[in-house]
Design goal:
Blueprint: E1 2-3, E2 11-12, E3 17-18, E4 23-24, E5 29-30, E6 35-36, E7 41-42, E8 47-48, E9 53-54, E10 59-60, E11 65-66, E12 71-72, E13 77-78, E14 83-84, E15 89-90, E16 117-118, E17 123-124, E18 129-130, E19 135-136, E20 141-142, E21 147-148, E22 156-159, E23 164-168, E24 177-178, E25 183-185, E26 192-196, E27 199-202
Parallel strand pairs: 2-5, 3-6, 4-7, 5-8, 6-9, 7-10, 8-11, 9-12, 10-13, 11-14, 12-15, 13-16, 14-17, 15-18, 16-19, 17-20, 18-21, 20-22
Antiparallel strand pairs: 1-4, 22-23, 24-25, 25-26, 26-27
């Protein structure tokens, strides 16, 4: 990775506002009217869509996609291959106020930002809101329009307001099918998963027909 500059390895359209203090990995694209703030770090082969906002110091792993008009506020941390859908909001203030109790304007020194963490492969659907501080587990999926107020387990599909788990999903993003005795199978890849309590994990044990 390198400090951002316009080169063959990084595509930044002229209407984007990208800080000279941001770091953007090779192969990444930043599209019209997007803003990437100071000290943000984007991995390789990332895409930041039209009108999206990447806050100061946000960290994104390789292969992330932030779709049009999504707002990723600092200090969010995105793992590898995270998908952020159109108009998603990742908040950073659990108790928001414009002013202090004495009605003086709040400054950056009057509150401490808290971030949303998304682990590898996680996806957040269009117009969903993740209320910091929450963690979205690896390969989990947040349905469009959901409001996430609690941590989401790995491989969980959550939906609603507030968001609750409604299914399990595999790494292909497709809902898993029951395979008996707390076991699940992906109809696309054939990968198998084992449920234990409120958690799901890849089942790496050998299977025989």
């Amino acid at each position: 990775m390198r400090k951002v500059h316009r080169s063959m390895a990084v595509r930044i359209v002229d209407s984007a506002d990208v800080s000279d203090d941001a770091t953007v990995g090779d192969g990444s694209s930043i599209w019209h009217l997007a803003q990437v703030r100071e000290n943000a770090v984007l991995g390789e082969n990332c895409v930041v869509g039209r009108g999206a906002y990447i806050g100061t110091g946000v960290t994104m792993g390789d292969g992330c996609k932030v779709q049009n008009y999504a707002l990723v506020y600092e200090p969010a941390v995105l793992g590898t291959g995270v998908f952020i859908g159109p108009a998603v909001v990742l908040t950073n203030d659990h108790f928001p106020r414009a002013v202090n109790p004495d009605l003086t304007p709040k400054s950056a020194h009057d509150w401490e930002p808290v971030g949303v963490t998304l682990k590898d492969g996680a996806s957040v659907g269009a117009r969903a809101v993740c209320v910091a501080p929450v963690t979205i587990g690896a390969w989990a999926t947040v349905a469009a329009g959901a409001v996430v107020t609690k941590d989401v387990p790995d491989y969980a599909l959550v939906a609603g307001v507030p968001a609750k788990r409604i299914r399990w999903v595999g790494q292909a993003g497709v809902p898993l099918e029951a395979d008996g005795d707390n076991r699940w199978i992906c109809p696309v890849t054939g990968d198998r998963y084992l449920e234990s309590g409120d958690k799901l994990a890849r089942d790496e044990s050998p299977h025989y027909n």
